[in-house]
Amino acid sequence: MRPPAEVAATPDAGSSAITFLIKVAVVLGLLGVVGYDAIMIGTTAMSLNDQAYAAASAGADAYQTSRDMDVARAAAERSAQTSNPANVLDTTRFTVSPNGTVRVVLDRTAVTILAHRLPTVRNWTDVSADESASPSP
CA-based Rg of the chain, rounded to a whole angstrom? Predict the structure, then answer.
């Protein structure tokens, strides 16, 4: 019986495997960051819609009792700020219709890891919600 043949070890025998593993780790890390940013932008948009509706409802209820647009705007802004301090009420697009329906537009920037740093996708992090509500009966 012959002894097994010895394989000569070279100094860089494992370097290609290590290089491959590093590349895989970098790609997975980038995919994780992109996925996180996408989820954050989506959840910000969904929660902002709910908060805009709540602010519009608060404004409509305030307008129903006071018949004052400034009181309705203040109530809507207070509701928006209570929901999330980063919410910004767009006062130029705040309206009250004759039947008491209040329209509110809220803006907020989504908290991301990478998207807000890239000029090509930075505007994706600026989320806006436009909601209307009538006074509760």
Answer: 27
- DSSP β-ladder status, 95-96 and 126-133: unpaired
Q: Are 133 and 59 in contact (CB under 8 A)?
A: yes
Per-residue model confidence (pLDDT) at position 59: 97
Torsion on CA atoms 76, 79, 80, 81, rounded to nearest 10: 120
The residue count for the chain: 137
- Beta strand 88-89 with 95-96 is unpaired
What letter represents residue 30's amino acid? L
- Who's near 44: CB < 8 A, 6+ residues apart? 108, 110, 111, 127
**pLDDT tens digits along 71-83:** 999 999 999 999 9
Q: How far apart are CA 83 and CA 18, in angstroms?
A: 48
Q: 24's torsion region: left (phi>0), alpha (psi -120 to 50) or beta?
A: alpha
